[in-house]
Amino acid sequence: MSSKIQRWGNSLGVRIPHKLAKNVSIYDGSEVEMIEEQNGILIRPIDAAPTLDELLSQVTDENKPDFIDWGQPEGKEVW
């Protein structure tokens, strides 16, 4: 698929065809990251919120929180 680069103020812009944008979940106002690669530019959407797996993959022995004793359950709490 091809598109044309056009001037947008002091920058350059590229139009992303609707079907392609929809297929990769990019919408008006979506945040994207642009990565310079050896053969061009990679544009991909930034997920609004990281998944639990992504967050947990960043936990290391150095940044792992200490155990917290929250005490005995109260009311209908179940531990």
From TrEMBL:
Transmembrane regions: none
Keywords assigned by UniProt, alphabetized: DNA-binding
Stored InterPro entries: Antitox_PemI-like (IPR039052), SpoVT-AbrB_dom (IPR007159), SpoVT-AbrB_sf (IPR037914)
Origin superkingdom: Bacteria
Ranges for domain SpoVT-AbrB: 6-51
SUPFAM superfamilies per UniProt: AbrB/MazE/MraZ-like
Pfam families in the cross-refs: MazE_antitoxin
GO molecular function terms attached to this record: DNA binding; toxin sequestering activity
Protein name: AbrB/MazE/SpoVT family DNA-binding domain-containing protein
Species name: Salicibibacter cibarius
